[in-house]
Amino acid sequence: MAFVELVGLTKRYGPIAVVNAIYLAIEKGKLVCLLGPSGCGKTTTLRLVAGFITPDDGEIQVGGRRVSAPGASLPPEARNMSMIFQSYALWPHMTVFENVAYGLRLRRLSKDEIRTRVETILAATKLSALAERYPGELSGGQQQRVSLARALVVKPETLLLDEPLSNLDANLREEMRFEIRRLHDEYRYTTVYVTHDQAEAMTTADMIVVMNQGVIEQAGSPEDIYQRPRSEFVAKFIGGTNILKGKHTGDSAVACDGGLVLRCGSGEFRSDAATAVSVRHHDIRLHEAKPAQADTNIVAGTVVRQTFLGSHRDYLVSIPGGEMVRSIAPVNVAVPAGQEVWLHFPPEFCRALAH
Amino acid sequence: MWAKSVAVAALAGAMAWASPGQAEPPAPYDITPELIDAAKKEGSVVFYTATDVTVAEKLAATFEQKYPGIKVQVERAGSERVFQRIGQEYSTGVYNADVIETSDAVHFLLFKKEGWLTPAVPKVVAESWPAEERDPDGFFAAYRAHLSVIAYRKDQVKPEDAPKSFADLLDPKWKGKLVKGHPGYSGTIMTATHAMSKALGWEYFEKLGKQDVMQVQSSTEPPKKLAQGERSVEVDGNEYNCFRLQEEGIPIEIVYAAEGTPLVIGNAAILKNPPHPNAAKLFYAYLFSLEAQQLNHDFGGLRSFHPELKEKAGRTPLKDIKLMLPDAAGLESEIETIKSRYEEYFGT
Amino acid sequence: MSNVASIAQAPRQTRRFDLSGPVFLSLGVLLSVLVILPLFWLLVYSFTTKAGSFTLDNFVTLVTDRAMRRSFGLAIGMALGVGALACLVATPMAWLVARTDLPLRRFVRALVTASFVTPPFLGAIAWEILAAPNSGIFNNLYRWLFGLDSSQYLLDIYTFAGLIFAIACYTFPFVFTLVANALDRVPSDLEDASSILGGKWLTTLRRVTFPLVLPAMLAGSLVAILQALTMFGSPAILALPAGFHVVTTKIWSLFQYPPKLELAAAASIPLLLLTILLLRGQKWILGRKGYTVLGGKSGSPMITRLGRWKWLAVSFVLSILCLTVIFPYAALLKTALTHTVDAPLSWDSFTLRHFHFVFFEFSATRLAMFNTLILGLLTATGVTAIALVVSYLVTRRSVLGAPALGVLATAPIAIPGIVLGVGLFLSYANPTFRLYGTLWILLIAFLTIEMPAGYQQLSSAFKGIHPELEEAGRILGASRLKALWQITAPLLRTSVIATWCFVFIGTIRELSATILLTTANTKLVSVIIYDLNESGDLGAISVLGILLLLVSFTVVFLASRMPIGSTRFQPRG
Questions:
Q1: For position C64, which CATH number holds?
Q2: Homologous superfamily of domain range A2-227
Q3: Same domain? B163 vs B247
Q4: Do C150 and B11 touch (CB under 8 A)?
Q5: Number of domains chain C contains
Q6: How far apart (Å, rounded) are the C-alpha atoms in residues B131 and C388?
Q7: Among B204, C57, C324, C489, which residue carries the largest CB count within 10 Å?
Q8: Which residues contact B161 (CB under 8 A, 6 or more apart)?
Q9: CA gap A126, A142 in Å, rounded
Q10: Helix or strand holding residue C137 (H, E)
């Protein structure tokens, strides 16, 4: 049974529905990522779950208990949740120890128990040596870990993370992704994680929820989302992809402008309008001469730009009909700009998108 | 419109008279041990006064010495501000003051009509005050009298150049040298201005207004401006301040103008609903005692109606001075005119 | 399921009554009453006759009465003069302090603060002592130096120009502070850019720096104009002897017998409208795009070396400070310690009798000091507390309609003190409230007058504290008020203390509204100073003035020394 459940959740600011009737069930102990571009409603959803704002419609249930509904919401302090904020929100006037102990003190635990639990969590987050420091004296990564420790020490039913890594530099960010996943595996809190970074979502999540313009575009495992996107938006947002549009001609083929016909290995077609076909950059085969074996899923184009990136080459190729296609090729395939190349789109990598 | 009607009716009291029922004046009273005891129980008395602050404080100190245990709270402001304050307070049901004293006789006519006074006649007033200097119904009596005089700095003006009359002050040589009080703020100046406008006509003030006169507010202030050396000649101002400054050794000479010197009567009264009724009666009686009157005269330079008062040596006795007598009843209806005329000629 | 245990751990399970609703409501009511009630009665009175029926006569009188028109004209002229003079003096001074290697820069800033703290009416009295045409110390010196007779004088403070000067002395800090802060923040790269492009020093100053601080100059001047326009003390002290009224003294004179409350109310309305207009102008100037550049922080500002101009600059700055602070203070000190104003400085003329008089003979002193202190403390605490809650509600937008509270808390800034005094008198001096003659009416007045300053300071402090800090506390189990108390409050402490002091000092020097609202039992130090001035007791005034200044500076000093917790933490961002 789902532990956290959003039922028709809606939040409006003026005439705009920032969160528009979303339904989502999160199982106990799972880490769910809300992923989307800024303004998609993911942070608002998280703040609705936290109780900082109340919904205009729909409700939120946690453990079978209704915690949010229009006009009847539990305040954040009564939800037994924890949250990690984008700014970390460490209290600058308290030491690391005091920051972490705050939630326990509110729960009126004994002094000894507070000390034990804080020390345990500080050890788990590798902060023991910094207990008496003030947040202003810590590096970004250390502050991030204090923030994690503070959230975890109260053993919340639900853990919420709001873009927790966006203030870190690239190296640290990657390290912290794994750290968050590790801590989640250790403590198994039901976790809602908001991010706009797909790599972060891929590394940490059990389930990714892609949001766009206040609605859920698609929810599923990272593999699902990546390999079986259901909409053009999801395909584009998760991993780079080329979108080619054409008319569905039956037999799972789509005829694009310029004579290219794409047989699609999966997906749905639409009959009322052009169907989009998504082919990921690295799934396109680039040949200097026309490959012999294929008659569909192949097209000739002109190299517009070619960039050497060390492990591979990045091509931009213009094909008949005016489309630009991006493709990755091994280093040894080096075609200068202006020359003709052949692009092969293997059908198993062509996914038709009806939305 | 409750707030409005109350505030306005009271503040602008003169507009709608509510004559209190008048009876015989109360029997004269004397200072008795019982009164003193009762007053001591009350512990203090609040005195709203327009007399110079040092004089009033001195009087208060003497009283406190004589009746230990009764504190006098002196609230000194210009007569018109005392009046304005009483108007504001009584119109809003605030009864802070016990005894009041201003140099504007009109006030007491208004207070009486408004019913803001408690009738009381100290024995000495009943026995020795001239009848025209006390209210026939016993609501107030002339606590003091003083003159509004011309004066000059002896070290800045040679005696032969000194003005002898109000007319002399129009001489261009006094331009920028004169200081005078304001009738809007001072009862003394209001009374004097009224008397002078009757005797000399408004043309006089119109001309005086062109003399670049320094305008101060209270009638205590012109003598002090002389003392500071800020101006050489005062057009009007309290005679008693001049006496006191002379005694401090400041070279000031008083001039009793040829046209006459305005006389100002300062009444005193007990207010209605005094917070300390017995202390008020005691203090009020004390105000008219020979001791207080002599102190006012000697230290404060005030004139008195007490028959046993000894005139201080060196002061011109009142009988030798040509006076312009006040006309409180006549002034009452002209206050507005005086103020607007005055502003026309003097700018404020 | 393990969540049974963890649910039991949750700090509270039942919904607790959320206090923010009632708090919001009561604040709303309180602020509305404070602001709207006096304005309401003001309007009612201005449109009625003495008998209480509707009329436009009061406004007709405003326009037709020559004296009334003149007082408005003079007030506006005076205010414009003050604005121009303040701007003219403050801008070069601010530039010298912020952008050059002028010696004693910190000292100069501190002294400018001192002229901020000086009550303008006290400054005006000090200037009477210095520059009254005959007795003024300067004029005596002048005559003595050149052997002139008593008809000669150098300065006359009892003039229109003298009044402008005396007010500008205590309003130029508004321009100075705004311009200096703006200069502090003009990013040096903007100037560097100009220099790299070949702009000469003067060109850079003229073409880049100056236009960037122009909004601050204009805004500062508008504040100075506003201050001058609504000021009561200085004009009452200097304009009346000079023989003219400005609008504030005119309104005050309408309270004299026979009082014309309706006309006073009507005369307040244009003053109110002018004030609103000026404030809008200021907001418009500061809100324009050019000024937002100044918000950026980048690099330390470019410092100009003064070289051989240094001493000229120093003497300019020092002479300004002498005129605004040093001479006036010296004059007060001298007057407090000598028999008469024009007595020479010698052991013979030395006396403590003014001190003796003020502290032992003058019965009003102690009561006034007590009242002033009590009201200062209550107002400072009340304003800080209310402003704290209002700015919280507004910046966190936690309650629907909170911005309206902010508007209400800022609104009194548009009500000149004397207008508020009239409004409050009309509102509370009636049989329903009977507050006239109590300290309450003064407390209400001060709360209203000081609310905008308190609110503006605290709301900007709130904006500097990330809301997530508080949310972090709430999600861990703290109620809204608890999070406010345990997390936000300690972080705000410095701002709160600063606000408190600011309000306290503002309160103990207030005169405009006070003058209409005090009675014998509710005397304040500022009012007895004014009363004493009326009776010409400059010695006693000087003693009280020095006392007032001492208290103010002590408060400023204590506040700056207040231990603000650990200095180790610096709020992020």
A1: 1.10.3720.10
A2: P-loop containing nucleotide triphosphate hydrolases (3.40.50.300)
A3: yes
A4: no
A5: 1
A6: 65
A7: C324
A8: B173
A9: 9
A10: helix C137-146
User: Is residue B5's pLDDT more than 50?
Assistant: no
Asked if the Cβ–Cβ distance from B215 to C535 is below 8 Å, we say no
Q: Do B176 and C259 touch (CB under 8 A)?
A: no
Cα dihedral value C317, C320, C321, C324, nearest 10: -160
If we measure between CA atoms, which residue out of C398, C472, C485 comes closest to residue A81?
C472
Do β-strands B99-102 and B44-49 pair in parallel, antiparallel, or remain unpaired? parallel
Q: Using the beta-carbon criterion (under 8 Å), do A106 and C10 form an inter-chain contact? A: no
**pLDDT beneath 70, residues of chain A:** 1, 294
- C498 alpha carbon, distance to own chain's centre: 14
Question: What are C139's two structure tokens?
Answer: 């004029």
Question: Domain for residue B7, yes or no?
Answer: no
B239 and chain C: CB distance < 8 Å anywhere? no
Among A217, A218, A231, A243, smallest CA distance to A353 is for A231
Chain B: partners with 3+ C-beta pairs within 8 Å: C
Residue C273 lies in a domain: yes
Is the domain of B49 the same as that of B63? Answer: yes
Q: Which of A81, A90, A93 sits opposite C475 (nearest CB)?
A: A81
Instruction: Tell me the residue range of the domain where B139 lies.
Output: 28-146+264-316
Same domain, B156 and B226: yes
Beta-carbon-side half-sphere exposure of residue C360 (alpha carbons within 13 Å) = 5
Tokens of A203: 């590394």
Alpha-carbon span C142 to C140, nearest angstrom: 5
ipTM attached to this prediction: 0.81
Q: Are strands A266-267 and A2-13 parallel, antiparallel or unpaired?
A: unpaired
Cα–Cα distances (Å) from C152 to B159, B178, B211, B213, C130, in that order, read 21, 15, 16, 16, 15
Q: Which two tokens stand for residue C145?
A: 């130096």
Cβ contact C132–B12 (<8 Å): no
Residues of A whose CB is below 8 A from C466: 87, 89
Cβ–Cβ under 8 Å, residues A301 and A320: yes
Residue range B70-125, pLDDT digits in tens? 999 888 887 877 887 888 778 767 788 899 999 888 889 989 988 999 999 999 99
CA distances from residue B338 to B229, B346, C58 in whole angstroms, order as listed: 29, 12, 21
Residues A234, A320: contact at Cβ < 8 Å? no
- Chain pair B-C, CB pairs under 8 angstroms: 187
Asked whether residue C434 is assigned to any structural domain, the reply reads no
User: pLDDT tens digits for C129-167?
Assistant: 899 888 888 888 888 888 887 777 888 899 999 999 999
The count of domains in chain B is: 2
CB-closest option in C13, C15, C491 to A92? C491
Helices C439-463 and C364-396 pack at an angle, to 10 degrees, of 40
- All residues of chain C having their beta carbon less than 8 Å from the beta carbon of residue B335 are 257-258
Q: Has residue C475 been placed in a domain?
A: no
Select from A12, A66, A80 the residue whose CB has the most chain C CBs within 10 Å, as the one to mutate to test that interface. A80
Residue among C477, C533, C563, C499 nearest C237 (CA):
C533
Instruction: Name the residue among A63, A90, A150 with its Cβ closest to that of C3.
Output: A63
Q: Is residue B10 in a domain?
A: no
> Chain A partners of C565 at a C-beta cutoff of 8 Å?
93
Which domain does C222 fall in, by range?
56-117+157-313
Chain A residue numbers touching C479 (CB-CB < 8 A): 75, 77
pLDDT digits (tens, 9 = 90+) for C96-110: 888 888 888 888 888
CATH no. for A240-353: 2.40.50.140
Residues ≥6 apart with Cβ < 8 Å to B65: none
User: Cα–Cα distance between A337 and A307 in angstroms, integer?
Assistant: 10
Predicted pLDDT of residue C570: 37
Chain C touching partners, 3 or more CB pairs below 8 A = A, B
> Of A232, A199, A228, which is closest to residue A354 (Cα–Cα)?
A232
